[in-house]
Specification:
Elements (H helix, E strand, L loop, with lengths): L5 E7 L7 H21 L5 H9 L4 H12 L10 H10 L4 E8 L2 E7 L1
Antiparallel strand pairs: 1-3, 2-3
Length: 112
């Protein structure tokens, strides 16, 4: 990437372990928001979307292959904000900052 190039990184980036109260609060509020959005409104959630996709013709085999290749990557592990920021800085980005946040969902802007 040339100097001045920009990367936007949106992901779940939890509060660090030293902010345990914020982590618990974020998880509680996120669970409440998901219940309101999915259960009460009858909207499909992430798990039901993947389940419905697996029932589409031809998708079962493709999803099995996805799990075989990448299954270990789809875990409950959520890299901390500090890890995302440090990784971008280690990759040569001179400025890295959160430009949007809702609880522990964040978007980082990184400038080369």
């Amino acid at each position: 990437m040339r100097p001045g190039g920009v990367v936007l990184n949106g992901d779940i980036m939890p509060f660090g372990p030293h902010l345990e109260t914020f982590r618990r609060l974020s998880k509680t509020l996120t669970a409440r928001q998901e219940r309101e959005a999915f259960e009460q409104r009858g909207v499909e959630d992430w798990n039901s979307w993947w389940q419905a996709l697996s029932e589409e013709p031809g998708m079962k085999e493709l999803l099995e292959e996805r799990d075989r290749r990448f299954g270990q990557r789809f875990t409950e592990f959520e890299p901390l904000l500090d890890l995302h920021s440090a990784s971008l800085q280690d990759a040569g980005f001179r400025e890295v900052e959160v430009i949007w946040q809702n609880l522990d969902d964040r978007v980082l802007l990184a400038i080369r």
